[in-house]
Amino acid sequence: MAEPVRSCVVALEINGEQVELEVPARRLLVHFIRDDLGLTGTHIGCDTGNCGACTIHLDGEPVKSCMALAVQADGGTITTVEGLSADGELTPLQQAFNAHHALQCGYCTPGMLMSASALLARNPRPTEDEVRYALQGNICRCTGYVNIVEAVVAAGGGA
Amino acid sequence: MTTVTDQPTTTLKKGFVGQSIPRKEDRRLVQGKGTFFDDVRRHGMGYVHFVRSPYGHARIVSIDVSKALELEGVYGTITGDEVAIHTDPFFEMSVEPGGLIKDYALAVGRARHMGEPVAAVCAATRELARDAAELIEVEYDPLPVLVDAEEALKNEVVLHDDAGSNVVWSGVFDWGDVDTALAEADHVVKIDRLHFHRFSSTPLECAGALVEYDKGTGEWTLTCNHQMPGVGAIWMAPALRVGIDKLRFVTHDIGGGFGNKICLHPQYVVLCLMARKLGRPVQWTEWRTDQHTANAHGNERTFLDVEVGVRSDGEMTGFKVRALDDCGAFPRYEPLGCIIWAQVTPGMYSWRNIRVDFTQVCTNKSPVSPNRGYSRMQHLWLTERIVDIVASELGLDPVEVRKRNYVKTEQMPYETPNGCVYDSGDYAAALDIALDLIDHGSVEERRKEAAARGKLLGFGIGSTLDSGTNNFGQSTLLNPELQFSGNNEAASVKLDIFGEVVVTLGTVPQGQGHETTAAQVVADILGCSPDQVNVRRGHDTWFNSHAGFSGTYASQFAFTGLGAVKGAAELVREDMVQLAAAVLQAPVEAIELADGFARIKDGPPEAALPFMALGAIVNANNAFLPPEFNPTLNHRYVCRPYFGMVDTEKKTGQLTLTYATQIHAAIVEVDPETGEVDVVDYAAVDDCGVRINPQIVEGQVHGATAHAIGAALSEEFVYDEEGTLLTANFYDYHVPHAMDMPPLKTGAMESPSPVAPLGAKGMGEGGGGGIHCICAAIQDALRAAGGAIVYDSCNPPHRVWSMLQDVEKTRANVRVEAK
Question: Would you call A57 an interface residue with chain B, using a CB distance cutoff of 8 Å?
């Protein structure tokens, strides 16, 4: 029987930069992003794919990066929370999170921002119900979601 | 959001205190530029994984680590036997028998709960550490398992042979004259059994630390997320047989704590041993499943044989109860929960006669740790259940009966039967705001409308107190030999060479916005903008800005944390004024600090020194200052609240200093077909005295409410009879998601605390108001379907459905004896 492949080369674009790295074949995408690339804004809050703290954009779609292997992202384009705003200027969504007190400990925030920005990309003026539906895969233990939902609605220009 | 404020903010109208300024912390956090402990790397560091017991109770026959050590990339292991040689058991706070329990950093000889760490392995990568853990062979001999506190009392199975009993602590608290009160009452309402369930706030960031050992100095540095390092060090240093000065705790950003990051000392001691043994930095990040099975649950409590005296006019004269608390396999922070509840002995009510026969036992479940609302929440649930069961059985209105029994605003400050002082508040007025917010007048109409849709609608109130600024002297009511009393917190403020205002805190924030609120307080005192105030992130023992009780817990930052900040800022201000007076050759009374300048009031524009000039003079250009004049512009201040001593005979004293008020009101709809509960309207009114930052206060109210709603409707740590946890991750332990949360209406009042430095009371824990009001609302809804009594604090659909199927079973729990 052939030896299993133990390591793979992963080449992808992340936040506008090309990276190419040999990693263990079983490395989770989230550990690749955090440990191998040092992009620690993406967080881990569970081991079952429930919490959404690890949400990134892979080829434009929100993906829970703890539910994918690094090798599955080979050839893809990734955006993490660090790639949301250029040159330290906050996006309207990030500004709304600050203005509406939509974060407390800030641990779920990167995942929330990635899910919310994916929503705003496909639905620029979401209603409160649409925001709640889009964020149901992201757990926050601090805010009760009230101000998060308010911030996303406001970022879309809604009241 | 609706914010109702029936009194104007009482603080400085022109200042930053009292304003909802956006948080300073947010800028880094929304860009993914926060630093959490797991983000920190060191050259050559190893990753630690714990081998955990799959059994609820088992003798450890043998542990063989040899195969793990053969794996390339494995750095080393530690087992319970090594821990028993190199460390001492952790200090226990209880008298006997609980005080005889031996609690080590790893299981020694016996595992007492599922998930208890029995060995640790360190390897080059996270994956390898897990692989190596799989190769460690542990032979277990399973033992009979205890998962029920009442069973534990029988001592047929004993968890800790050294103690010889499962009882940790037991004692009777007897204030007033409850026997006479019951004898003279017109009715006595008896409730056989109520159960407050086991859950926890499950912070999204799990526990962990990066630990480095300096072999030259013998010091450990823990880059970690411990939320109470002062007390953590008190446990760890003696166990490691070193002085407390050998432990340096560093925190950066912390992803939520809620009390669940107070009892991390066992794992941290293993990491310290591993770092020293291997001579390399070691890192451990807890897995979610491990947090659920073996980090920290909230206290589970069963209330037995409740008897309540009620007069015919609805006034309650007092109650007695047997409380049985289940602290899991080891006491750790316990038995403090056996006294902390007494901060709110009569709840919000003017009851003078109360007897609580309190016993705490060990079972084969996860150890507990303080969890948001710690111990008071369980007791307040009891007082609220008492009120609603009495109201339901005697046909009283739950609003009127509360108003009749509440402590009145004109009685404030009010001394409870056990010597605690409720500092300020107007409970009836707060209730009125809550009723207004949910349109209480329309409840009957909405009930009919829901009934037409086949739904049972119910309305409920939860009245709670969030007691803050703990007196550690209350521990001596449990064990008079303990050498703890009072409380303290420290902060430093300095003006640096280029005019930078730098604040260091002893507190360990996990999302409470301390950087912002501390900056607001300092800005008002020094006459600058909060943007000019750099409040250092997190905690560092080397800041030297901490005290023995440093941490963020027990709703006290507004008192002790900001009290320390205020004290230090005022000392710096005094230096600045004197220095400016000397330089500008004006009397000190003529100097004002404003807009980032020290200047002569109403003086010419040139009679003004920027902060930079003051900082430069003292720090770098001071030769012209006379020898007797030595302003430092750098001050540390310790806020030490005054409590007086507790009376260990009468079990009385000021156990805490401030009492924030929360009144929650909910309207629920129960589906009689499924038992599903839908919260359709919800209001939370908070009165924490002066609000330093109203937006942050409201955020805490939202969060505490979400925790309570989750606990009331779904979150429960359920064990099977073999001691296996059935809800060990976010699949089975359902916390509220965005779709689950009802719209929340909030209201606020401000009854300034007469004892707190800024009139601001600690807040944020919330007292479990949502649990109380949802239980009350479900019971109200079930009235139309036979009148079941809500006897458990957690009511997922299957439990509500069972109550609907067997109403009499729940009602058999309750009797009314008329005199």
Answer: no
**Which of A31, A101, A141 comes nearest B696 by C-beta?**
A101
Residue of A nearest to B695 (CA): A101
pLDDT of residue B544: 85
A87–chain B nearest CA distance, Å:
11
* Helix then strand then coil, % of chain A, to nearest 5: 35, 20, 45
| Cβ atoms of residues B378 and B299 within 8 Å | yes
Residues from chain A contacting residue B31 (CB–CB below 8 Å): 41, 81-82, 84-85, 88, 90, 94
Query: Does the ipTM surpass 0.95?
Result: yes
Asked whether residue A123 is domain-assigned, the answer is: yes
Compute the distance between CA of residue B680 and CA of residue B2 in angstroms, rounded to an integer: 16
* Same domain, residue pair B598 and B672: no
Cβ of A110 within 8 Å of Cβ of B32? The answer is yes
Distance from C-alpha of B272 to C-alpha of B240, rounded to nearest angstrom: 8
**B320 in any annotated domain:** no
Shared-domain flag, residues A75 and A123: no
Best probe of the A interface among B3, B21, B27, B30, by most A CBs < 10 A, is B30
Angle between helices A109-122 and A146-155 (to 10 degrees): 40
In a domain, A110, yes or no: yes
The residues, any chain, with a CB within 8 Å of residue B590's CB and separated by 6 or more, are B581, B600, B601, B603
Instruction: State the angle between helix axes of B769-782 and B694-713 in degrees (0 to 180), rounded to the nearest 10.
Output: 50
List chain B residues with pLDDT less than 50.
Answer: 1-12
Q: Which of A40, A103, A140 sits opposite B26 (nearest CB)?
A: A103
Closest CA of chain A from B703, distance in Å: 5
**Do A103 and A35 sit in the same domain of this protein?**
no
Q: Which amino acid is at B181?
A: A
Domain count, chain B: 3
CA pseudo-torsion sign B408, B411, B413, B414: negative
CA B271 – CA B78 distance, rounded (Å): 9
Q: d(Cα B755, Cα B234) in Å, to the nearest integer?
A: 29
Residues A72 and A96 in one domain: no
Q: What is the pLDDT of residue B5?
A: 45
For residues B433 and B513, membership in a common domain is answered with no
Query: What is the span of the domain harbouring residue A27?
Result: 7-83
Task: Specify the number of domains making up chain A.
Answer: 2
**pLDDT score at A1:** 66
Domain-ending residue, one of A83, A117, A134: A83
CB pairs under 8 A between A and B: 182
B83 assigned to some structural domain: yes
pLDDT of residue B158: 98
Whether residue B425 sits in one domain with residue B282: no
Query: Which of B22, B703, B729 is facing A144, going by the closest CB pair?
Result: B703
Say if residue B392 is in the same domain as residue B459: yes
The segments of chain A whose pLDDT lies below 70 read 1, 159
CA distance B51 to chain A (A): 17
Q: Does B202 touch chain A (CB under 8 A)?
A: yes
Residue B39: its chain A contacts at CB < 8 A? 34, 40
Q: Which residues from B are below 8 Å from A47, CB to CB?
A: 287-289, 729
Provide the strand spans (E) within B340-391.
Answer: 353-361
Residue B535 lies in domain: 486-639
User: Is A64's Cβ below 8 Å from some Cβ in B?
Assistant: no
Q: Which residue has the tokens 């010091």?
A: B219
> How confident is the model over B714-731, as pLDDT tens digits?
999 999 999 999 999 999
CATH of the domain at A142: 1.10.150.120
Residues A105 and A65 in one domain: no
Q: What is the CATH number of the domain that holds B222?
A: 3.90.1170.50
pTM to 2 decimal places = 0.96
Looking at the fold, whether B620 and B527 belong to one and the same domain comes out as: yes
Structure tokens at B427: 């409970």
For residues B502 and B522, is the Cβ–Cβ distance under 8 A?
Answer: no
